Amino acid sequence: MIQLFCMPDGVRHAHAGTQDIINIGGFASRIDSRSGWRARDDGKSMAQTNVISDTLAGLGRMAIDPVQELGRAAIFFFRGLVHLFSFPLQADKIVDQVYFIGMKSVFVICLTGAFTGMVLGLQGYYTLVKFGSEGLLGAAVALSLIREMGPVLTAIMVVARAGSAMAAEIGIMRISEQIDALETMDINPIRFLFSPRLGAALIAFPFLTAIFDVVGIFGGYVTGSLLLGINPGLYFSRVESSVLMEDINGGFIKAFCFAAIVATICCYQGYTTHMRKEGFGAKGVSLSTTSAVVISCVLILVADYVLTSFLL
To answer: Do 289 and 98 touch, CB atoms closer than 8 A?
Structure first.
């Protein structure tokens, strides 16, 4: 301060001006630093907002995509059902598919039904004997097969043998542009490829289910009567007295529903092979076949529960 007072007036004014400039510069630097902090905070909030929006969008896609696929499959089914009854009828193609889906599956159905009935007879006997009710074995085996296991296992076996083949065949036709060639020739591919398979499945599934039930009941007879010593007359009399027409009708209703599910899902997966995001070509066909089998089996079990709830 002493030095300032000793300075001339012009020097003191210049020094004061310099101090003011320094003070203004420091204030400006503080403002710039605060603006930088605010910009960084705004950037962090924007990044967090983007992460949240991307997460919600992904969850939305996960919810919407299955609904869209279900809607496309439903439209595919109804179009095939309409073409099934349109003229001219494709009787020769339906007969060929009945042979492929039904006749070629008889051996697998008989084998599966026989061992299923034998297992039911064995397990049912050792369960009922604890309560002194082994005479009810015939009723337990017959009702278990006719109401539940017959339609479900028949559908699963047909999916494994014929459904996978349908998906692979139509998928190969899609990636080799044979379906595009049908459209070029003004031939409806859904009518030509899907409708005969749907009609054949609706015809074959009830017959295969009936075969499974009958073979399974005789399998239970082999285990219960021939191996474990239950009176054969008692076994078959319980089958006759316990099985009602409502039980048989319920099994056939399930068979029709499973036929529609299997034919629709397997043909739809093959038909839309070119739309798969995971892969194209041979990989797309393999993925379509796998998806057809897995989705069909899951929907069979879901539909079985829903139908059982309504039929009981």
So the answer is: no
